[in-house]
Amino acid sequence: MKPTNDNSYIYITEQKEYIDRMRADNEGYAAENGQRRRAYVLTFGCQQNEADSEKIKGMACDMGYVLTDTPKDADLIIVNTCAVREHAEQKALSFIGEYKHLKAKKPELLIGVCGCMVSQAHRQNELKNSNPYVDFIFGTSSLHLLPQIICEKISKGKRIYYPFSENTEVAECIPIKRESTYRAWVSIMYGCNNFCSYCIVPYVRGRERSRKKEEIIAEVSSLINDGYKDITLLGQNVNSYGKSEGFDYDFADLLAELANLAPEREYKIRFMTSHPKDATHKLIDVMAENSEHIAQHFHLPMQSGSDRILKIMNRHYDIERYLKSVDYMRSVMPDIALTTDIIVGFPGETEEDFECTLEMLRRVKFDMIFSFIYSPRKDTPAAAMEDQIPANVKSERFNRLLAVQNAISLEKNKPFENKTVRVLCDGPSKNNENVFSGRSDGNKIVFFDGDSDDIGRFIDIDIYRGDTFALYGTKATK
Hints:
5-stranded mixed barrel
C-alpha cells in the first residue's frame, strides 16, 4: 500500500536499514545452506492479535524468512501473547517453556515474545529471570521495530527488551502476510481510553490512537480490488475512532465512505468492538442506509444487566441507555443480528444483579453471546475489590446463563428454516471435510454441501434446519 503522506513512512524509514541487513544475511544463509531460514509465529488472543501477527509474518518475509507451521523447523519463533485472562497467559507461558528444548538442540534459534502479556512489568521480569532462552521481547507499540530488534540481538548478542515504544504515532506501511485471500482484518485504531475496572487493555495497549482516514481507505480499497469479500475493521472501541486526534470526521463517516468504495462489487464491511456509550443513531443510520455493503450485525458488549454492577465496572452507561440503542437499531434494521459480551461473577455481583442479567437476555434476545467467568487481572481496580465471588458460585451462574441463552439462540435460528441465506464460503468444516461452512451477513455459522470452487465466494444456501449454534442447508438451485 502506498503511503498517502510523509507521516506514513514510520516503518519504512526507520526500519529499511535493518530490513536490508537481515535480507542480505538470510540470502547469504540460503546460498550457503541451500534453504532459507524459517519463521514460526504462534498467536493467542483477540482479532487484534491476529492482525498483529499478520504484520509480524509480513515483516519476517520482508527480512528474507520463509514461514513454517512447525516450530521445530524454525530459525525464528515469535509468540504473540494475550493478557485479557489468566488462562491465556498461562497457556502462552507453557508453550514458551516448551521451546527451551528446541533452543538446546539449535542454539542459533531466535525466540521472541510479544503482545499484551509482555507489557506487564511482572511478566517482563518473569521472562527475563525464568526464561533465559527468550532472546527478545517487544510490546504492541513496538511491533514495527521487529527488524531492528532482531538485528540488535544478532549483532550485539545480548537479550533485547522493547516493551514500549516512545513514539506514539501510528506506524503505517508495515507489510502484511494475510491468512486468507477473501477475509481481512484492518486495524483502524489502537489502545483504549475507557479504563473499565476489570480490563487490562489500556495498560498493555496504551491510550487511543487512530489511523488517518486516508490510510484506512487506501488499505480497504486495495483489499476490495484484490478480491477480498469480508473486511473487519478493528479497534478496542471503534465508535470513538478519531476523537483523541480531533478528526473532523467520525466512525460513522468513515464507515459510509468504505461502504461506497466499489458499489459494483460484492463485499461486506464489519467492525468490532463497539462501546454502548458511543453507539450513536448516526452510526446506526449509516448501517441501515448501506446494508448492501455493511453487514447487518452489531456486536454491542453489555457485560452485565445490573446498573449497580455497570457503575462499578466503570462502563459509563446504564441499562436504559443500552436498551434505547437496541430498540433504535431494530426500528431501522428489523433483521439486525445482535451479539454481546457478558461477564459472570464480577466482584460484588449478587443473585439479584445476576437475575438482572438473565432478564436482559430475555428482553433483548441476542442472537449469540460471548460469556466469560470473571478473571482478576493484576493491577486492575477490580482485582483489588472486596467481595470476590467464589469459583463454585461463578460456575453455577455461568451454567444458568448459558441455559437461558441457548434457548434464545435456538428461538432466533428456527425462523431461518425454509429461507435462503447469502453465505461467504470458508471451505470444509473442521470436523467433517465433506461438510462446508461459511458465515452469513449476520455472522451466523452455516453448514452446507459445497465444493472447493465455492471457497471464498458468496453463495445462496437454502436453510432446512436452524439449531442453537448454527444453520444447516443446501446450495440453492435457483
